[in-house]
Amino acid sequence: MIRPNVRASFGRREAEMLLSIAGPGGEERLRTEGIDALLDDAALVRTLLQRGGISAAPAPLVFYLLVRHALLAREISDRRLADYIAALLLEFGKAGRAHRIEAWEDQQFFYLADILTELEQARGEREFLLRVHLGNFALWLAGLFPDHITHRVQRRGAPPLTYYDELGASGFRSAAGMEIALRHDLGDVLLRASDQFSTVRSALNSLSDALFFPQPTDTVDRLLREVKDSFERGHGSA
């Protein structure tokens, strides 16, 4: 089960990395304002990227910073939501993990429709895990691989990004109301992930475009996707 626990894992190594970039005054800010003063410093993140520190810094720190500032750029200031999304990216980045509701599961899901089919018979904890996975998997696919989805839409008539937004938000929302979510203190973060799903997905799109896939195979598809997404955000359809 994915939990928003990346930020809580930061220790001396992460603090030293931040201080090495923050320069003069960094220690004073850390002591008087806490680590969030450094984590939320956009100039510090830019310096980290410019110096190539992204390859030397601990992966949890890098992913938290990237997600946190991608969400801040979309005016989402919720640290716990950023923490959850960072944990999701770290976990699903492991080979094959994105296709399983738990790391130890043998059964794999490659399409959202397969998860929906499985949900028809699921009850209890498995139902909860499947509903959360529906949200997680939709966000992973549509957030980091929007070019692939847009290409399939243009060439094969496959479901668009809004399909992933709707099913992903529905998965998070239905999971948030279950007793298991409350027991594990996940109800609030799952509900916020549902309410802001399309905006979070768009933030991850920008992150993917800039860092993970900076050179699209089809610039027209990406331009169409970016224009459509910008239009929908401007008209409040998210």
Keywords:
globular; mainly alpha; 68% helix; 2 domains; 238 residues; single chain
Tell me about this structure.
There is one protein chain. The chain folds into 2 domains: 1-92, no CATH class; 100-238, no CATH class. Helices cover 68% and strands 0% of the residues. It has 14 helices and no strands. Helix 5 (59-72) packs across helix 6 (79-92), helix 8 (124-144) runs antiparallel to helix 10 and helix 10 packs antiparallel against helix 12 (187-195). It starts with 11 loop residues before the first helix and ends with a helix. The mean pLDDT is 89.
Tell me about the largest β-sheet: none
Unreliable parts:
none
Strand content: under 5%
Rg over C-alpha atoms, rounded to the nearest angstrom: 18 Å
What's the helix count? Answer: 14
SSE blueprint:
Elements lengths: L11 H11 L3 H8 L2 H4 L2 H9 L8 H14 L6 H14 L19 H8 L4 H21 L1 H11 L4 H16 L2 H5 L3 H9 L1 H16 L6 H16 L4
Helix pairs in contact: 5-6, 5-13, 7-8, 8-10, 8-13, 10-12
Outline of the structure:
This protein has 238 residues and is mainly α. It has two domains: 1-92, no CATH class; 100-238, no CATH class.
